[in-house]
Amino acid sequence: MRATLAILALLPAPAMAQMHHMDGMSMPGMTMPAAPKPAAKAKPKPKTKPKTPARLPIRPQSHSHAGSDHVMSTPAAPIATDPTCPPEHAAMGHCTPASSAAPEAAMPHDMPQDMPMHAMPGMHAMPASNSTKTGTDLPAGNAPPPPPPTTRAADRFYDPAAMTVADRTMRSEHGGMRFSQILFNLAEVQVRRGGDGYRWDGEGWFGGDIDRVVVKSEGEGTFGGSIDQAEVQALYAHAIGPYFNLLAGARQDLGPNGGRTHAAIGVEGLAPYWFDVEAMLFASDKGVRARGSAWYDQRLTQRAILQPRVEVNLATQDEPDARVGGGLSSVEAGLRLRYEIAREFAPYVGINWERRYGATARYARADGEGSGGVSLALGIRGWF
Question: How far is Cα 75 from Cα 53, in angstroms, rounded to an integer?
Fold first, then answer.
């Protein structure tokens, strides 16, 4: 035993440390002394938990947990102060602090802290309040419009009579103005078989956007002779829409077969695809006549315009003194190409085809005239 201890004493320190850690090994003839047990450390006393602040109840939400109702609560959040309105100024009434955000509801301890409120069991997303919406985000309503302002700054300095005149002038210049125009859509010479002739079709009007007074005239004749037929219409026009006018008035026939007065009523305006249309009824003590016409301005260039035109005349019965037969009286179609030297002045050239039917054709042949034909048209379209 003594020999063994002497050998161990001669070993270096690392070997001794290795031998010291071999406490779980048994060597023959050797018994390692047991290592002294460390003294047990005294257990620290549990710290007392600080009292949690009182929880403020928020909107009660009933949750079914084991048959009981659970009311969620949230800890009281510190009052956020508005830097622009210190508490001492707010206490004196010098300002009003901005309202602090509503405290968030406390989440259960077993749920992630970043879980949205509507993802929690039993919770649903609340719709946004209308108070946060403005302008066109608000739902449509039927509230009446606000009343127009009744006070003007100028009323304090000017006489009421002068202000009334100024107000009337302003309204007249901003939508209530009066306009006028004289237009000759056709003013031409017709080169045709059996004698050259002439023709006109024009109108003039005066008024505003809604109501107007209109005077129309059209007719034709032969050079070296009297006017074959002519008429003048005096009408009142009232707008019945953005594109159409209602016409009512009287028509007076002129010429050798004239002398008859008709009551006139009809419509005129701009049809879809930019067709100018007109439909009129003429009633007299001898019968009723009808006329429909349409034309279209096809712009080829900024100055060259091609205008197709068609006109149809009908009558309810024969009128021998006016040389008009019942039914379909006549049909006319033309094609004219004009060149606008100016918008108000445009010479044109074209062709015109006309045909009489029924008793109207018989009256024309009895008078030594043809029932129709084709003519070359040379004329001027102008307005001012």
Answer: 7
The residue among 191, 211, 213, 215 whose CA lies nearest residue 201 is 215
Quote the tokens at residue 298.
Answer: 């096809």
Which among 239, 250, 240 is positioned nearest to 208, based on CA atoms? Answer: 239
Angle at 350 between CA 345 and CA 351, to 5 degrees: 150
N- to C-terminal Cα separation, the chain = 146
pLDDT tens string 195-213: 899 999 999 999 988 999 9
Beta bridge partners of 314: 290, 328
Query: Does residue 136 surpass a pLDDT of 70?
Result: yes
Decide: 208 and 179 in contact? Cβ < 8 Å. Answer: yes
Which is more confident, 354 or 224? 354
> How far apart, in whole angstroms, are the C-alpha atoms of residue 160 and residue 170?
15
Tokens, residue 115: 């879980």
Find, among 278, 267, 266, 234, the residue nearest to 252 by Cα. 234
Cβ–Cβ < 8 Å for 287, 319: yes
CB 338 within 8 A of CB 347: yes
pLDDT in tens, 162-187: 998 998 888 777 877 888 999 999 99
**What is the DSSP code (8-state) at residue 30?**
-
Length of the chain: 384
Computed over its alpha carbons, how large is the radius of gyration of the chain?
A: 53
Tokens read off for 214: 């209109």
| Residue in the block written with tokens 């949690």 | 52
